[in-house]
Amino acid sequence: MPRVMVHNVNDDKQLRDFKDLTADAKELIKAAIEARQYAYCPYSKFKVGAAIQTGDGSIYTGCNIENGAYPAGICAERTAACKAISDGKRDFVACAVVAQQDSGFTTPCGVCRQFLAEFAMARDFPLYCAKPACPPLQVLATSIRDLLPRSFSFLGNK
Ligand code: THU
After folding, report:
1. Domain of 33?
2. Which atom of ligand 1 approaches the CA of 108 most closely?
3. Would 17 be classed as within a structural domain?
4. pLDDT tens string 45-92
5. How many other CB atoms are there within 10 angstroms of residue 98's CB atom?
6. Res 155: pLDDT
7. Known catalytic membership, residue 27
8. What pTM does this model have?
9. Is 54's C-beta closer than 6 angstroms to any atom of ligand 1?
10. Greatest C-alpha distance within the chain
11. Is residue 156 part of a domain?
């Protein structure tokens, strides 16, 4: 056994061929790809698209929206989540995130993981990370609780 394990992305057990995904997952990823075109990111120039499916089958999309006051910007995942929640939909069924990095898949940042975990307390939900080629070849299939086990919760603190 070598002392340093070098993992190739092709060894990743969470990698899926796009064609093998469910129709719902494919639709969600395509919606995130579509939403990515609206990214407002003049500072980072890093476009991100996201889509969230809710229990009634609706799809809420989002893009990152940056601001000259940098911390005021918001990620694509939270844009999509805020749209869903403010429309009365909190039962998240699945989420897709799309961005282009040559080196690997873009997964939600720490803040987004915590934000989404709030809505995965009762039931974890799958999270698909993909690149913007439509259809993408491969997808990283993970889940919100896989990305953030033991997330902070205040709900038990009544
Ligand atoms: N960003 C997202 O929208 N989602 C992620 O998962 C990672 C980062 C945005 C925030 C910022 O506008 C840009 O990408 C660079 O960090």
Report:
1. 5-143
2. 6
3. yes
4. 999 999 999 999 999 999 999 999 999 999 999 999 999 999 999 999
5. 31
6. 85
7. no
8. 0.93
9. no
10. 53
11. no
pLDDT at position 38 is 98
Q: Ligand 1 centre from 110 Cα, in Å?
A: 11
Q: How far does residue 21's CA lie from ligand 1's centre (Å)? A: 25
Ligand 1 pocket check for 117: Cβ under 6 Å: no
Within-domain flag for 153: no
From CA 74, how far away is CA 70, in angstroms rounded?
9
Q: Which position among 27, 34, 77, 118 bears the catalytic label?
A: 77
Question: What burial class does residue 34 get, using C-beta atoms within 10 Å of its C-beta: 0-12 exposed, 13-18 middle, 19+ buried?
Answer: middle
pLDDT at 10: 53
**CA-closest residue to ligand 1 atom 1:** 75
Q: How far apart are CA 151 and CA 87, in angstroms?
A: 25
**Does residue 121 fall inside a structural domain?**
yes
pLDDT band at 4 (very low <50, low <70, confident <90, very high): low
